[in-house]
C-alpha cells in the first residue's frame, strides 16, 4: 500500500472508526490491563522522554507520565481526533503536566532523530500499513540504547477473525489481520530486520468463553469497515450473494465450535521489546527525521 492518496483514505477510515468508538473505548478492563503490562515491562524511570504511538485515549501515555515525573516528558500521538479529545479530557482530570497529545500519523513522524528513551505502541500494530518501514522509522527516533515496546496479538486470537479468514480464503480473499505479528518468531524477525537488539518477546495466554451470538457478531465480511493493514478493502471484490453465502458458512463453523461454556475466544498476547543499537563510531546525530521517511 504505497500510494499516498490511497493511504490517506485508509487512515481516514481508521480515524473515523475510532472517533466513533471513543466515548465507549475505555469501558471494560481489557485495554487498560494490556497498557499497564506494557508499561511495567518497559521499566521506565524518572526523567525519560517517551513517545506513545497510536495513543488512543492515552492509557499508556498517562501511566508513563506518572513514572517519568516532571523531569520527564510524554507525547501521545494518534490519527483520531475523537480518541485524542478523550485523552485530553483524561489528562485534564489527572492534573498531570508532563504530557501532550498530538494529531499525527505514527508512520510519518517528524521528531528529532535519537530523541526518545522509550517508544510504545499498544494495540495498534495491526493498523500500520507497512510494519517494516514503521519500525525503522521508530528506531531512528529512539536514542541509542532506547527501548521500543509494542503489544500485538497472536494469529490465533479472536475467533471471529480466525474463522472469517478461513472462510474468505475459499473466495480468494486474503485478510492480513494479526498475521504480520502472529507468532513470536514473526515479532522477533520484524524487530531484527529493523536492526533492534536485545529483543525479548513475552507471550501471555489470554482469552475467555464468549456466547455464540457474540462470536457470530465478529464476522469480518462488511467491506465498509477498514481492513487492518489493507486498502482498498479486499472484501469489495465479493458479490452480495458471495457475502451472504460466506456468512452462512461462517455461522455454521461457529455452531460447530459451540461448547457448554460457549465458544473459546483466544486472545494470546505478545509483548515485544527491543533496544536500538549504539552506533559503531560512538556518535549519534540529532537530525530532524523528515515526514514519510
Ligand atoms: C485499539 S486502539 C489502541 C489505543 C491505545 N494504544 C490503547 O492501548 O488503548 C488503536 C488506535 O490506533 C490509532 N491508529 C491507527 N493507525 C494509526 C497511525 N498510523 N498513526 C497513529 N495512530 C493510529 C487509532 O486511531 C486508534 O486510536
Automatic annotation (TrEMBL):
This is Methyltransferase domain-containing protein. CDD domains: AdoMet_MTases (cd02440). Residues 50-146 form the Methyltransferase domain. One of its GO terms (molecular function) is methyltransferase activity. It holds the Pfam family Methyltransf_25. GO terms for biological process: methylation. The keyword Cell membrane does not apply. PANTHER family: TRANS-ACONITATE 2-METHYLTRANSFERASE, TRANS-ACONITATE 2-METHYLTRANSFERASE-RELATED. The keyword Methyltransferase applies. Keywords: Methyltransferase, Transferase.
